[in-house]
Design a protein that fits this description.
Blueprint: H1 2-16, H2 24-40, H3 45-66, E1 78-85, E2 90-91, E3 95-102, E4 107-114, E5 126-136, H4 148-154, E6 157-163, E7 170-174, H5 177-192, H6 201-207, H7 215-224, H8 234-252, H9 256-261, H10 264-282, H11 287-305, H12 311-325, H13 333-349, H14 358-372, H15 374-381, E8 383-384, H16 388-413, H17 418-443, E9 450-451, H18 457-470, H19 482-486, E10 502-506, E11 514-518, E12 523-528, H20 542-553, E13 561-564, H21 569-572, H22 575-581, E14 586-589, E15 600-601, E16 607-610, E17 613-619, E18 634-638, E19 644-647, H23 653-659, E20 670-672, H24 684-690, E21 694-697, H25 710-717, E22 722-725, H26 726-729, E23 732-736, E24 743-745, H27 746-750
Parallel strand pairs: 4-6, 12-13, 13-14, 14-15, 19-20, 20-21, 21-22
Antiparallel strand pairs: 1-3, 1-5, 2-3, 3-4, 5-6, 5-7, 8-9, 10-11, 10-23, 11-12, 16-17, 17-18, 18-19, 23-24
Length: 757
């Protein structure tokens, strides 16, 4: 079983690593070769069989999901669908968001019903006929950044939709009473519990509803390594099943009649599993809850069957169960964190002398997990919390004994008495408030979250081997050599420009602009991309979500210069977040009054040389300031061999014509097109003067402005200019100064079969 389960996992991983799905001929050839190898090498049969089964099982799941996709070329078209509301609707400034399961097959769509008077009351389990404007899910693709297309695919989601006001939109029936019950509990908790700084977490712990929680609150948990506390998973289900086991076991033993019919241990084990399954169902049976349920079932089943089973057999059984249920969950970080934690505990605590003392029983587990998850944290998050050990040592028992019992009791009492329920929920909230103060205090330490360089998968695997060597039993010869195996995590990335060269990355920032220029020893950022959402008090912007992960991924720890072309939010939206992580020595902009940090004007004539690469501002002059888009900083970057890139911000035709006064300065190898290719830019004489070989267009996919404008793009094409858009290519990277200028398309180079390529 163990060998088959791990081989099955390898087969699933093999499938999801593919850039494109194989054809039938390749599949048949591969299967035939595997069968032949199994016949010739009989000891390898379980391994090959497991890999084959895992590969084809994942292929079936992926094929089924891919079959439900918005056809290419029909994005934005209106479809009439019958479906069921799957999630508790989330009310936002834009409207109401919810997951919609298309009937009869249940494929999921992320739906927005914009604010209007015609929105009916929506509850999970309600079936509707809706007219939806459907779009394929298309996310940003950047080195080190979050891959929302992969996240959606792992959740079984292939489309998003916007409800169109139509007389055809109407309810059909009510399907799932249990989902309506979850929604009622959520609404009742918000009704009986007074609002406080921590009250938003109570529904998260009761029914798994975490959509209305601000990013700043998540940041506290992230910096202290305690974000697992607020997602119903193994920790919570473990506490619930443990309480029920102890309670039922104690009460059962009080009755001789019950014990004569069924041993107390079996009754307690069965009750514990039912309690865990019920709590998981109440959370909406998210993947972490399903996973934890299967692991608890794997642990309890041998007790009920009165068979002795080893830890690793139980682990393999739970792993196989999860992969059979949801093979694509290997694409999500919770899968690796949960199974990684359990494997570390089993390895670090097994094969030792009988445990004795408080530290061995309780503290050692936390230390093992904290140390052991270091490689995965580097790989998944590019940071590690040095206060995690202390924070979890406080938070886990606090959550298990002083918060969770009151939350669950209060939720149960909602069906009986609002007064009693309100009392227990307020006690839980007061206790949570105390814990939150501790976590907030710990999160403010500068070393709470140490940024780390994103590692290659090979470095991570070597470090994981080093961790397991370190966790070998005491007295094992050479176990501390495991430290050497972890050192590759600290190795810097080797892709550093040579003197006279400049690495340029035009990031995929959606409908905005952000670029990073790196020389041998210096780094410049040109624009910081847009802000997402309307809440200015949260770090939901390109500086936090795109630029910072990219800089860490690229092993960049210091920022020499920041240029903000002008103050519009799609160019300056990420300034505050970027500056909070990296303190640039110099900040230039054309509109200092609109930038939230101290800055200087960018003016024509300012120039400097870094490592043989020339940087100079061509525009604006003092007389050109205070003209909005037409005041944008225009910068030219020239490598030692003469290759150059022209950054133009949002200048339009008036500024382009002014730049023609210095026509000789404009000629460039690469042009970042002005104003995202709008109709107000792209003066033919300006394009002739620049005479680029390649034009890069920073633009959002299906943006509301319909950029770039086709007539403007045609002006570039007729002049033989090769066009690349970030909406299609993701981040675009190239190196000035090399003999042959080549462009790397991040989406094409790192996409998989589920990405829109």
């Amino acid at each position: 079983m163990r060998l088959f389960s791990f081989s099955f996992l390898c087969g699933v991983l093999l499938l999801v690593s593919l850039h494109a799905l194989p054809g039938n001929g390749v599949l048949l050839s591969g299967a035939a070769m595997a069968v032949l190898a199994a016949v010739l090498f009989r000891p390898a049969t379980p391994v090959l069989l497991g890999i084959l089964c895992g590969f084809f099982w994942a292929l079936i799941a992926a094929g089924s999901l891919l079959s439900f996709s918005v056809p290419e070329g029909t994005d934005g078209k209106i479809f009439r669908l019958h479906g069921e509301v799957l999630s508790i609707p989330e009310k936002t400034d834009a409207g109401t968001r919810f997951e919609f399961g298309v009937l009869p097959f249940g494929q999921k769509i992320s739906v927005l019903w914009k604010r209007s008077k015609n929105i009916p009351e929506l509850n999970p389990g309600d079936a509707f006929q809706l007219d939806l404007r459907l779009y394929r899910i298309h996310g940003l693709m950047n080195p080190g950044g979050r891959d929302s297309e992969t996240d959606a695919f792992a959740k079984g989601m292939r489309a998003r939709g916007v409800v169109i006001d139509s007389s055809s939109n109407h309810p059909l029936s009510h399907h799932s009473r249990f989902n309506r019950f979850r929604a009622k509990i959520f609404a009742d908790i918000r009704r009986v519990l007074p609002e406080s700084k921590t009250s938003c977490w109570i529904p998260a712990l009761a029914v798994g509803e975490r959509k209305n929680i601000s990013q700043d609150r998540w940041e506290v948990l992230k910096r202290t390594g305690t974000n697992h506390l607020m997602a119903i998973a193994g920790l919570h289900l473990g506490f619930v099943s443990g309480w029920v086991f102890l309670l039922v076991n104690f009460l059962w033993k009080k009755s001789h009649r019950l014990c004569s019919r069924l041993p107390a241990g079996l009754a307690a084990a069965g009750s514990a599993f039912l309690a865990a399954a019920g709590y998981a169902a109440l959370s909406g049976f998210d993947l972490p809850a399903r996973r934890a349920c299967l692991m608890i079932m794997a642990a309890i089943l041998p007790l009920m069957l009165r068979r002795k089973v080893s830890f690793w057999q139980l682990y393999a059984l739970a792993l196989l169960g999860v992969l059979l249920l949801q093979p694509l969950s290997v694409l999500s970080s919770p899968f690796w964190l949960s199974f990684g934690s359990v494997a570390l505990i089993g390895f670090g605590m097994g094969g030792r002398v009988a445990p004795s003392g408080f530290w061995w029983k309780y503290g050692r587990i936390q230390w093992i997990v904290t140390l052991g998850l270091l490689p995965l944290s580097v790989w998944l998050f590019q940071q590690y919390s040095l206060v995690s050990l202390a924070a979890n040592a406080i938070a886990i028992p606090w959550m298990g004994f002083l918060i969770l019992p009151f939350v669950i009791t209060g939720s149960i009492l909602l069906q009986i008495s609002d007064v009693a329920s309100g009392f227990f929920l307020q006690v839980a909230d007061a206790s949570l408030s105390g814990l939150w103060q501790v976590l907030s205090y710990l999160s403010k330490f500068s070393f709470a979250a140490v940024p780390l360089v994103s590692a290659h998968i090979l470095q991570v695997l070597i470090a994981i081997a080093g961790v397991f060597i370190l966790l070998l039993p005491k007295g094992f010869p050479g176990r501390f050599l495991g430290v050497l195996w972890c050192l590759p995590l600290l190795l810097p990335k080797g892709d550093v420009p040579l003197p006279g060269e400049a690495h340029v990355t035009l990031l995929d920032a959606g409908q905005g602009l952000s670029a990073v220029v790196q020389t041998a020893h210096h780094v410049l950022v040109y624009d910081t991309g847009p802000r997402y959402g309307r809440d200015k008090n949260t770090k939901n912007d390109a500086g936090e979500n795109i630029l910072t992960p990219f800089l860490r991924y690229s092993a960049i720890r210091h920022l020499d210069t920041l240029v903000v072309s002008h103050g519009d939010s799609d160019h300056a939206g990420g300034v505050s977040s970027l500056v909070s992580h990296f303190l640039p020595e110099n900040i230039y902009t054309s509109e200092p009054e609109r930038i939230p940090v101290k800055s200087s004007y960018c003016l024509r004539g300012q120039k400097w040389i870094w490592d043989g690469v020339r940087f100079e501002f061509l525009y604006p002059e003092m007389s050109d300031l205070h003209e909005g888009n037409n005041s944008s900083c225009v910068m030219k970057i020239t490598a030692k061999n003469g290759q150059s890139v022209l950054m133009t911000g949002d200048i339009e035709k008036p500024a382009e014509l002014k730049l023609l006064q210095h026509r000789a300065d404009l000629a460039s190898t690469v042009l970042v097109v002005p104003h995202h290719g709008s109709k107000t830019s792209g003066e033919p004489a300006f394009i002739e003067a620049v005479h680029p070989g390649v034009a890069l267009i920073p633009v959002g996919w299906h943006n509301r402005y319909h950029f770039p404008h086709e007539a403007v793009m045609q002006r570039y094409r007729v002049r033989g200019v090769h066009l690349l858009q970030t909406a299609d290519a993701g981040a675009i990277q190239f190196t000035l100064g090399q003999k042959y200028l080549t462009f790397s398309d991040w989406r094409e180079a790192h996409g998989h079969f589920w990405h829109l390529l």
